[in-house]
Write a structure and sequence with these properties.
Order of helices and strands: HEEEHHHHHEEEHHEEEEEEHEEEEEEEE
Oligomer: single chain
Helix content: 10-25%
Strand order of the largest sheet: 2-1-12-11-10-9-8-7
Largest sheet: 8 strands, antiparallel
Number of strands: 20
Shape: globular
Radius of gyration: 26 Å
Length: 452
């Protein structure tokens, strides 16, 4: 157990972990929290091989495996070896989804069946990639709406083969060489290496257990084959949060964390990016993945804005509740961050001061501010609306970074004396007063008048 948290916080976290393990009758469970790149708390309950599990004990992580495959696809994209808009047939021909894009497979919106044809794949030895691809006929395509979310394990089996073909080596060897080794994740493997937990199912009505199989999934392995430890997953949760080392550009991981499809149930809480699950929880924007295989459940979630992450791994087939988000909630409740003291900035571009303050989009008031990092922030002065940050360009224009105006150009309109008169935001004109007549507002400005 680490000691960087207050004893009262550690006790609250341990109690939540202990309740989870006892009430859900989990043979063993390890969970922990990461903040600012460091593991600040980790603990375990239950036993593995007669003793408590440790941060070096392997568990099967199931579909968290998909995140590694997705990172490899994005590495190939960044190298120019593929485009997310490419059709599958361009790289892996011969399936009924050859007209679907690589991006749709990554974002679980291709309409491909969830599971492969044949026996229950998680509990039986897997076949070859050729057999898997041959099985993807018209019967494997589900009648989902275009761009609709439909989770597909088969899709990541296909993406694993895509990686193998473009790299000329099995997907797991590529992941080892290009991700695990550079990040120092020495205990993440495709087969268990001692010490490791045994996969178990717990009888629903009696306190007895059943050993679960751990077969090699063959071509379906990219969907859920990997085993890992808490220490390795702590490094991976930092990666998902943006600490990518030299493996991937942080901007690419940000792209992976952007919603590509949503699970549109009664209440929108979760979605899928590019190989990453997304979840909204009490104002947090979480990214990561859940995982389950016979005998194992795992969760990994990163909150990049708060530089916080949570991991848990258990050797049970079913029964884990909302442990991950509960641990994050307890941390926020017991040890919220203390804001840094505010200090005046020493490097503000004083020429930007004349741009700040009130602007109007038609009759709607907006405020333009200078952010501490030198960006401009344009947002409604009250209520909700279109808000974006802007970065400067060498030619004096600005480019939107997020929100409605992401990627859009902002130009500063000036009079003959160089005084700012209006903002031209991709043809929308913002003026110092509502519909200022001296600004180039399309449609003409006849002047304000009393109502009839």
């Amino acid at each position: 157990m680490l000691t960087s948290l207050l004893p009262s916080t550690q006790r609250a976290l341990l109690r939540r972990l202990a309740v989870e393990q006892r009430e859900n009758r989990i043979p063993s469970l390890i969970a922990g929290l990461v903040r600012d790149g460091e593991t600040i708390w980790v603990d375990s309950r239950g036993k593995v091989g007669g003793g408590p599990s440790t941060t070096d004990t392997q568990y099967r992580i199931g579909s968290i495996t998909k995140t590694f495959v997705a990172v490899m696809v994005m590495r190939l994209r960044d190298e120019g070896k593929l485009d997310l808009a490419d059709k599958l047939d361009e790289h892996v021909p011969g399936t009924a989804i050859g007209n679907r894009s690589i991006g749709s497979l990554l974002s679980q919106s291709s309409g491909l069946t969830a599971e492969p044809a044949g026996e229950w794949w998680e509990r039986t030895p897997g076949g070859s990639a050729e057999e898997l691809l041959k099985s993807i006929d018209e019967s494997a395509v589900r009648p989902t709406p275009h761009h609709g979310f439909h989770y597909s394990n088969v899709g990541f089996g296909v993406l694993g083969e895509l990686v193998a073909r473009l790299r000329g080596a099995p997907w797991h060897e590529v992941v080892q060489r290009e991700i695990l080794d550079p990040l120092g994740m020495k205990r993440t493997t495709t087969a268990p290496v001692a010490p490791h937990a045994e996969g178990l199912a717990v009888h629903p009505w009696a306190d007895v257990v059943l050993p679960e199989p751990a077969e090699d999934a063959g071509a379906m392995a990219p969907a859920g084959q990997l085993w890992s430890t808490f220490d390795d997953m702590a490094r991976w949760v930092r990666f998902v949060g943006g600490d990518t080392g030299d493996v991937l550009h942080p901007a690419t991981v940000l792209e992976m964390r952007s919603p590509g499809s949503v699970d549109d149930g009664p209440e929108w809480r979760g979605g899928y990016g590019l190989g990453l699950q997304l979840m909204r929880h009490r104002g947090r924007r979480l990214a990561g993945h859940t995982g389950s295989m016979p005998g194992f459940i795992a969760n990994l979630w990163a909150d990049p804005e708060d530089a916080t992450g949570v991991i848990f791994m258990a050797n049970t087939t079913a029964g884990v509740g909302a442990l991950s988000t509960d641990l994050l909630d307890l941390l926020a409740e017991h040890e919220p961050r203390i804001p840094e003291a505010w200090e005046p900035s020493a490097d503000v571009d004083m020429a930007l001061l004349e741009l700040t303050g009130q602007w109007y989009w038609g009759p709607s008031p907006y405020v333009l501010r200078i952010l501490p990092d030198g960006l401009l922030d344009l947002a409604p002065s009250r209520g909700r609306g279109r808000a974006s940050r802007f970065r400067p360009n060498a030619d004096g224009t600005w480019t939107g970074l997020d929100g409605y105006y992401s990627g859009e150009p902002l130009r500063i309109g000036r009079d003959a004396d160089g005084v700012p008169t209006h903002l031209d935001l991709n043809t929308f004109i913002f003026t110092r007063t509502p519909y200022a007549p001296e600004a180039p507002v399309p449609g003409g400005v006849a002047g304000w008048r009393p109502g009839q």
